[in-house]
Amino acid sequence: MSEIDLRYTDKRTVERYIRQGQVDEKTFEKHLKGLPDLAEKAERVQAEADEYILDEDLNEGAE
Question: How much is the pTM?
Answer without folding.
Answer: 0.60
